[in-house]
Write a structure and sequence with these properties.
Largest sheet: 3 strands, antiparallel
Structural class: mainly alpha
Strand content: 5-15%
Shape: globular
Low-confidence stretches: 125-137
Order of helices and strands: HHEHHEEHHHH
Strand order of the largest sheet: 1-3-2
Mean pLDDT: 83
Oligomer: single chain
CATH superfamily: Winged helix-like DNA-binding domain superfamily/Winged helix DNA-binding domain
Length: 137
């Protein structure tokens, strides 16, 4: 019961739900900079939320050189698989936009790996004004 409580606490945040849905749609490991572009959130925020999901046992990472690739764990329990299935069935406009941006970003890969990195000259606030993110809540 404790593990299930941790999972639900981890999923009780819109950004973490978005991350889970994007990672699920990717089907492969995704670099933090690719997640930054897909979700249009700052790197520190994406990394912090990935840490929460990893601590809850939903996400794993593997390093390749300087890059860390995140993906949903493949060895989830049947109850966790059921939760993911419910998330897949729940579709919304934000998740669809995130998925489209991720697909565009993944198309930039060379040899199946991220080589671009995050462009600090294009901060996320240029794309989504801060007041727009507060208005959605």
């Amino acid at each position: 019961m404790q593990k299930l409580t941790e999972v639900f606490q981890a999923l009780a945040d819109e950004t973490r739900l978005r991350l889970v849905k994007v990672l699920d749609a990717a089907g492969t490991g995704v670099c933090v900079c690719e997640l930054v572009d897909a979700l249009r959130l700052p790197q520190y925020q994406v990394s912090r939320h990935l840490g929460v999901l990893k601590a809850a046992g939903l996400v794993e990472d593997h390093k390749e050189g300087t890059w860390a690739y995140y993906s949903l764990r493949q060895d989830l329990s049947p109850s966790m698989d059921a939760i993911l299935a419910a998330l897949r069935a729940a579709s919304d406009e934000i998740a669809q936009e995130d998925r489209k941006r991720l697909e565009l970003r993944l198309a930039l890969r060379v040899g199946g790996r991220c080589i671009v990195g995050y462009d600090p000259a294009r901060p996320f606030r240029e794309v989504i004004p801060l007041r727009a993110t507060k208005a959605r809540k």
